[in-house]
Amino acid sequence: MNEKTQPTHSTGRIAASVDTLDPVLIDDLVAANRTLASLNVLDAFGHVSMRDPRDPKRYLMSRSIAPESVSAADIMALDLDSRPVNEEDRDKVLYRERFIHGEIYKSRPDVNAVVHSHSPTVVPFTVTRERLRPVLHNAGFLGLGAPLFEIRKTAGKKTDLMILTPSLGKSLAKALGKDAAVILMRGHGDSVVAPSLPNVVFRAYYTEINARQQLAALTIGGPINFMTKEEALTSNEAMLKASARPWALWRKKALAER
Amino acid sequence: MNEKTQPTHSTGRIAASVDTLDPVLIDDLVAANRTLASLNVLDAFGHVSMRDPRDPKRYLMSRSIAPESVSAADIMALDLDSRPVNEEDRDKVLYRERFIHGEIYKSRPDVNAVVHSHSPTVVPFTVTRERLRPVLHNAGFLGLGAPLFEIRKTAGKKTDLMILTPSLGKSLAKALGKDAAVILMRGHGDSVVAPSLPNVVFRAYYTEINARQQLAALTIGGPINFMTKEEALTSNEAMLKASARPWALWRKKALAER
Amino acid sequence: MNEKTQPTHSTGRIAASVDTLDPVLIDDLVAANRTLASLNVLDAFGHVSMRDPRDPKRYLMSRSIAPESVSAADIMALDLDSRPVNEEDRDKVLYRERFIHGEIYKSRPDVNAVVHSHSPTVVPFTVTRERLRPVLHNAGFLGLGAPLFEIRKTAGKKTDLMILTPSLGKSLAKALGKDAAVILMRGHGDSVVAPSLPNVVFRAYYTEINARQQLAALTIGGPINFMTKEEALTSNEAMLKASARPWALWRKKALAER
Amino acid sequence: MNEKTQPTHSTGRIAASVDTLDPVLIDDLVAANRTLASLNVLDAFGHVSMRDPRDPKRYLMSRSIAPESVSAADIMALDLDSRPVNEEDRDKVLYRERFIHGEIYKSRPDVNAVVHSHSPTVVPFTVTRERLRPVLHNAGFLGLGAPLFEIRKTAGKKTDLMILTPSLGKSLAKALGKDAAVILMRGHGDSVVAPSLPNVVFRAYYTEINARQQLAALTIGGPINFMTKEEALTSNEAMLKASARPWALWRKKALAER
Description:
4 copies of one chain form a homotetramer. The first copy, chain A, has 258 residues and is an alpha+beta fold. Chain A has 9 helices and 7 strands; from the N terminus they run H-H-E-E-E-H-E-H-E-H-H-E-E-H-H-H.
């Protein structure tokens, strides 16, 4: 745990950190949680975070509740060692696997949003030898790589497969590497990263959709005409912009429900 | 039928048994029924029970109606021979397969809740040679075993595959054994047991989810990197606690619907 | 067309035929239509009928609209040549494939209800060599047989696969035979028959469920431990009674929706 | 871009073009958008258009928003070079792939409605060698052909797989040919055409349903008893009329939701 490498902060400055955040951003994060639950990427587990746009050494995430239940009051700020920034949040129950988020933000300055999920059709691709590769143009980001994290190699035989320590979070972030948008977690799910919150929701959704379509293509029988690396990267660039359209729909629906 | 082995009880004491039960517990059982219906683990068949926390020789279950219709007034107490405890419940229609519950409570003192379902993706694993094994960490409890009960061996050729007698209930409980969390029932479904009601709902749900993911992994093609026994047991311990999070969500939604 | 073999009827007697029918029975038929739509057995096509309990030479069915839209006012009486019985119904648009119903009622006096659907997972079993056989005990009625009707053999090369004439209805009824509960229709769907309306809804639903589970079992890989003929028949007897439980739920929900 | 081949139009005449359109037709187009979203043929992407019944050199389509959000005010007229006809629409954000529509209307005078979608179970058939062929009689239109457009051959290595230029639209229209109802787009989805809006919704829906059923039939194992060419064409003729029934249901539900 690199706790010493993170600056300590004045409580006064910190206490204000979420309160003064743009309420639109808080709503964005609430909407992202609810959207991924309604799209069946998240069930009662999983979590969504965004880097604090005012301070890249912090990120925002809900306290530990089911994503579809998240409201604005549940959002808190954490530092990159995944400790609550605000005094008043010290007693709240935190997601036990929050280190996934903090350690990825440390190692990937290009990443501003992270989703961890048990994406149902992705899980089978974490326990088989078939790689998850881009079938659908919306999932071109898979061309950036989707490596597999086999926790058994790091955590040893007694693992419960969860990322419960900063050290495991660091190992996961290392396995993600400098380029990939998705890290598969064996017998567990995945973590998806992106430069923005709308785009991470988009990527988490299309990772699941691509997994379903790749599974169907395997059922039909190969060879499968996957996107080339070049196509995938070109498509990914286009989708970084195009994710605005679904996000407008998803955000509106998610916030209208309550 | 071991009717004589069970104590007879004073009607007075019994008549009060459900009425004086904590209404929160009754609501828990109502919520468990509705939740498993809304999660598509139960259709119009199947049933959920919990051991009476005041008297381990009794259990609580609905009268015979579809699980998603269950309300507090439908809950009754049964003794471990699966006879209604209260005078006023003697005329009610009971689940014909209630012996699944009573006989498991007799043979498994560690079990405080039971679900019997026709879990749709579990059924195919009851008629094939592929064993149901833990793919997803939430389903680590499958590492405790998920044996198959072939009713044909016990009930003979004329079976309708149902557990309609105490004797068949006993055979099923014996096949479940002392450790397993799930017993597969050929051509029928499964019965799932747990130390608590929230955990049995959790296990019934993730048995279905694991079956879907194992089916997808088989479609992709082996070898499948199943959880090891040690991982499964470690994960199971973690999930006994972690099931509180989904339960909070499920309970709230189930009780809000009416 | 056996039009002459059916008695002509006095308009007076006929005009009253539906009006005086027990409104509970009309609601049953409305509920059956909506239920099978909400269970995704029927989409915007398909139809449900019941034999008129007052006159076995008539049956009751909706005019030609999508099943989920059916209301009491849409129900009309038809004779077994599938002609409207009541004067006021003569101008209504009828289901073009109503001969499925009329001809089955003629040939099967034991049948009191018929469903024709494009049951989505049944269709693949109509174009492959794998027979639909009972996997799940609720589908024991499949043990009575589920023959395939290859319309190409009867209707010739220019068929649109539909049962648009009394003659094709007769051929279909003949292929169903005297015992089967289900007739598969190649590239089209199925028709399901039962001694009662609740049971035909039950059978249509579990035909679809069994098809899904048999498909999953085939994916896992054989040999599949199907129900034996004896088990299937025993289970079918039990389910003729047990279908009351789902029916109570389905009917209530279907009629509450409007 | 064939901009010169299209007539320029008087702004006065044009400005009135949508305003004076029958509001029933505008509602039809709104309903078509929402219906295909609720049927899961469209997600937040995809678009639906109809040829302007008053001027075959124009078509009507929404501005660029998610299909399920489309309202009457979003509908605009475009010429066949896919430029907004009305002055007031010049600043609106347009679907970037609108050239799919314009170029098909140019090359296929028989076509009066077009749907472009990422139909989820169709995508796997665009990356494998299995052809999409009619299994279900409702999908007889597949007998008119469902060729594959491999954009890599036209757009080169750096393609993002989207139809972003008139030239790519023309290539797609050419690949569709003079007869087919569906063009598969590799790694992307499909475009479906029909002589009327109700029929194009019908065809887009049953293209997805047929893909699911063909996938299931392939899972069961061949040989698959596909519809013959003659059966497919006969059935297609019947369905051009029969699509009125589902359309009545879908339109009513889609417009009732808001």
